[in-house]
Design brief:
six-stranded mixed sheet
Amino acid sequence: MSLSITDSYLTRYRAVVGTTADPTAVLPLTGAQRRFLLARALDPLGRPDLAPLFFHFPRGAVDLSRLRRAAVGFAGRHTVLRGRVGLLKGVPVLRAGEPSVDVRRVPVPSGAAQDALRAELGTAQTYGPALRLLLACGPEEEQETLAVVLDHLACDEQSLGAVVSGISRAYEDTDNGDGPRHGAEYGAEYEAEDGAVYREAVESQLRAERAASTEASLTYWGERLSGLSGPVADPAQAQEAQDAQDDRSPEKGMLSHVLPAVPPRSRGVLFPALLDAGTAALRTWSAGAGTPALGYPWGGRPPAQPDVMGCFINTLVHPAASGPARIEDTAAAWWDDLDHAGTPYDEVVRAVRLTGGNWPGTLDGILTFEDLGRRSALRLAGETGRETHVAAPLRYAAPVGVAASYGDDLLVRLVWERSGASDDLAQEAFGALLDTLRRHLYAALPTAVAAP
C-alpha cells in the first residue's frame, strides 16, 4: 500500500520545519485545516471559510475598548488564535505568534446593521485574523449587533462554545482601567499556555487520521461514493453565475423556519432525518440530474485529549441518491459511515477516483447541525446577547447550505447564492426539505403541531 496522504504531509512538514530558526513556533495542520486552506487557495475570489455567530445587545451596552482587551487576552491563551496559517516552502503550517484578532465597530451610515456586517464579511481577507468581533448599529436601530466570527481553520463547533464562554469570562474580568494583558506583559509562560497541549492534540489527530487511512476504509468509501456524479449544475448556468460575481460579495439568500421540539421518540433519528431532508432539497435543486454529494462535518478531538481550541473535525459525504424511503435504512447507512468517519476527506476523494469514479471532491450541498444545549449564552457585564441569524455572504464550500439548530425547538435554514439559482427554486427545495422533516419527525403528532 502506498503512503497515505497524511504520511506524505508529515514527511514534508518534518523536512521543512527542521530548517527554521524556531521549530517550536511552527505547527502542523490537521486534515480539516489543510482542506480549508486548499479550498480558499482554489477559490477564484480567495474567500475564507468563516464560522459566524450574531448577537443582539441593547444599544450602547457593549464597551468596545473593554471587548478588545478581553478578546486579546483570551486569544493569547490559545495557540490556534495566536498566529497565521500559510505555506512554508509549499507546506501548510501554523506559525504561532501574537494574538490574531480584529475588534472594531463597522460604520452603518444608513440602513440596518446586519446589511453592513454582511458586506464586511463578504470582503474578509483571505488570510485575515483568526478571531473577529465586529459591532454595528444602524441609525434607527435600538439594538446593536455583535458578530463573533472565527476562521474555520481555527475552530469547530466545540471551539465556538469555548469562544463564547471564554469571551464572556474575559470581558467580566476586564474592567475599564485594567484587565487581562498578553505577550511580554505576561511573559513566555502565559504566551504559550496551551502550546504543548495544542501541539500534542494536533499530532494525536494526525495519528488518528493516518490510522484511519486503511485499505478497508478506502475500499468502503470507494464503493459507498462510487455513484457520485460530480458537479450536477448546468455548465452554462454555472458560467453565468460566475460572470455575475463582479465583486467579492455575492448576495446570499436565506430561508428559515422553526419547527416544534423534536418528540422524544424521534430524537434518535434526528440526524438521519436531516440527511434525508438535505437529500430531498439537493435533488430538487439539481432536478434529479445525477447523484449530488451532501457533505457534513463530524468528529471531535481524539479520545483523552484536552479540550483545546482548534479544528478537529472531518467532512463526511452522503450520496444524495433517490430513496431510500425508510428512515431506518438511512440510519443504518449513516451508522456504517460513522464506523469509517476518521478517514480524511482527501483520502476519500482519492479512493473514489481509484475505483473509476469521476467525482472530483466538490460538494453540491453542506449540512451543519448544532445542539444549542452545548453552548452557553454570550454575556457581557450582565447583558445576555440574543442570538440572531444573518444570511451572511460566506463561502459554504457548496452552492447550497442547510443548517439546523436544535434546542427548545428546531430551527432550519437554507442559504444559497442568488446569482446561481432563483428564489423560486430555493423555495421549492426548502419545501421539500421541510416536508421530509415533518414526515420523519412529526408524523404521529396532531396536524396543528406537526405542520406549523
